[in-house]
Structures are given as structure tokens and as C-alpha cells.
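Hey, sorry to bother you again with one of my protein questions. A protein chain has come my way and I'm curious about its shape. It would help a lot if you went through both lines with me. I owe you a coffee for this, so here goes:
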Amino acid sequence: MATEGDLIAERYKLVRKVGSGAMGTVWQARDQLLRRDVAVKELLVRTGMTELQTDEARNRAMREARLAARLHHPNVISIYDVVEYEGRPCLIMEYLPSSSLADLIAEQGVLPVGTVARIGTQIASALAAAHTAGIVHRDVKPANVLLTGDNVAKLTDFGISRADGDATVTAAGLLAGTPAYLPPEVAQGEDATFASDVYSLGAMLYAAVEGKPPFGTDDNAVALLHRIATEEVPPPEHAVPLTATLVWMLRRDPKHRPEAKEVQDALGALAETMPAEMPAPAPVPAEPVEEAPAATAEAPDRRRGVAIALVLGAVIVAVIVVVYALNQPQPSGTAGGPSSTTRATSTAPKTSTTTPAPTTTSTTNPPATTTTTSSVTTNPPADVATQLVNAINDYYKLMPNDLQDGWNRMTADYQQNKAHGFAGYQSYWQQFSAVSLANVTATLPNTVTADITYTYKNGGTTTEHTTFGMVQQDGIWKIASS
């Protein structure tokens, strides 16, 4: 086992141990040739390991190096070299003064939704790049996400990743991945896919906003795997307005999950609407290993401190502005359907252009988007039942492209407590490409039922029977409950 001060490959001097786990130890080191800090990941080769197990450790190191070398992405830890030290493989990696997302969750319990959305956006971007390169990470979890003091999140540990064309190098009986964040198909023994990474990312973000992963962290791995493989994910309670996106990512059927790029877009759009509160833990200061470089590095650190103070002041002002704006009436426009429950299947995508209006009243009222006071008074009013049916039909004709107009067809209480604000409303509707209605029926005085079929952007569909409570405000029927 290496110790502080050892020189690896006659070049990398170990400064201090920064972490360790079942698979090895990570050191901060100094590259004597290029005069830069690096991380050295010393892979564990225990006394008594068989030749097969030793070869597995070496293969794991080479695998991680090869796969990471295929990625050049700002949210992926770079690998520079692979060397051996006393018969043990060592990865020479980018050194990032940071703490892990697991550390942050342990310290704070639950994290603000805006923080989680920003972290999720960056890691989804990293996964999108990996998937484009044909790489399945297979072990997305909080401990493998590093957070810096300047709001950067990076994905690390591609040690059990799999690339197209690679043979599996995991020994028989060794679980490839962390049970608490495994998707159900992997828990059932199937191979991991790109969709499996998306599920694991969803489980990780779920843990960040709820304080624990969807099925907990049972010490009994077999019991935990059984729950993951057979049970539905409990709906998150503190994730608003992330709820719809998380539910989408955590769907049991991999075909109904979004791609990593879609997750990046959905979380990115949400993050842009929320206060910039990214309380990443302060990085552990590196110990100086060379006098001249350490001295010259202090001035930029002080300037960074001043910059951070200025940014924090700006953030406070921004938060005040955002809070004020969110409490103002939304401008008139076009919008999509309500996120009426915490299940992704409870909101509807864009209405099919062939969705029929009620045949008995389709010619008695002008379209809702062009109705004016004068036009209402020049046409005989439809009966209340027809008005209710038309209100729901007209609403879903806007979905998912006319979100602003749809937003104005909901009561203020429904907007905030069911749709979870306009940001949550937008995030929800981004997962759908179309919606269609059938069996739209009104029951007086103010109830409408309908069978709603939602089409996801990946082609999957789901149908729900929904009951709406309607309220008339300013002469317009608005959705008040569902």
C-alpha cells in the first residue's frame, strides 16, 4: 500500500489521502514533471487475491482509462495516464478540489430544488456525451459526483462502465453498481443500457431532494434489490417543481424514460427560472507542495473570494426579483396542460389536430383564443354542459405548445398548488409531444370527465381517465381541480 511521500512512476509524488473505498484509494499528488496537482487512484489489490481477481483489478483500471479517454467534457473527470506501483494499477487523473454530492447530502439532509436542478443538468450533459460515445456508466450515484466551490459538478468513476463491443469484466457474483440507485431492469438481472443511467440519475436527484433514494438504503442488499425490482417508486414529497421530470426518469419501463439530452434540456429550463442557490461544500484546501507555485496561487484565491462575495450580493437581489415576479399575474399568451398530479401520466401532451369538438355545439361558439366581449354578446350562449366540454377541449388543443394560454385557463390556486408554478408547468410539459381526448362528458354544475391519451417524445403513450372541477371567472371556465 502506498504512503504519503511515495513517488509513483518516478513522477507523481503523493501529498495526502483524499478518499478510499472498496475498490481503492485516491490521493492528491504532485506531477513533478508538469508541476501540477493530479489525483492518483490506486486500485486495490488485496493480499490473498487470486490471479483472476488481480487481473480483474488491472482490467478495471485499463477499462476506466480507455473509456474516460474517449470523453472530453467539462462535466467529466479527465484521466491522464495509467501506471503501476508495486504491482498495483494506478490511474492518474484530473485533481479537483471538491466534495462529493454524497457529502453534501449527508451534511444538509435535503437540498434546494434549484441546486438539484443545476447539478442534474450538468450530470445529464455528461451522460449525454457518454451515451453519444457509446458508453454506459452503470454506477451513477452521489459519491461519483464531485462538486466544486464555483458551482461545477463532474461525473467520475467509469470503472464498471461498459462500451459498445466490450465484454463484461465484472467477476461472477460481483454486483456492478450501487444497489440503492440501480434501475429495476438491472435489479432483475438484465444488462444496463443508456436508459438505466437515466434511472440512476433520477434516483440520485430524488435522494438529493428527499434525503434518501427511492427505496432507501437497506443494509440487506437482497431485500433492497427485491423492492427495486418489484415495487413502484414512492412519489417524491419535496421535489416540486422537479416532480414530473423525476417521475419521467424513474419509470419502470426503460422505453418510457427520457434520453439524457432530454433530461438536460428539462432540468436546464427549470434551473434558469430558479434562484442561483448552489451551496456546494467548500473544497478542502490543498497542502502546498512547492513554495513558488503555492505563493503565486494565493492572489487569485483572494480575488475569487471578492468575486464570490459580489456574486452572492447579486444573488440576493435576483432572488427578490424572482420572488416578486412569480407573484405577479402571468402575461396572456398560450400554454399547455396542467400538471395535475405527481405522476408523469397525469398531464397531457399536445392535442391531436383531429380531436373533435362536441358535435352539438361546434358552430355556436367562436374559438376561445379569439373570443371578445362583442362576439359573446352577438351569439346566443351555449348551455352550461356544452361550455364545460368546450373549455376542456379548447384547453387541450393548446397542449403542449401554447403553455402561456393554457396557464391562463387555470385558477391561481391550481397554478401554484397543482401545476407547481409556471416553471414546474413548463418542465412537466416538455416530456410530451402530443395529447388527444375521448369521451369528454360534463356533469352539472361544474364537473368534466375525459379519457386523455398522452404521447411521450420517445413514442410511448399512456391513457388516463381524469375528472376536472371547473370554476367560472370573468366569464371563462377555468380548471380548478383534477
About this structure: The first helix runs from residue 51 to 69. Residues 344-481 form a domain with the Nuclear Transport Factor 2; Chain: A, fold (CATH 3.10.450).
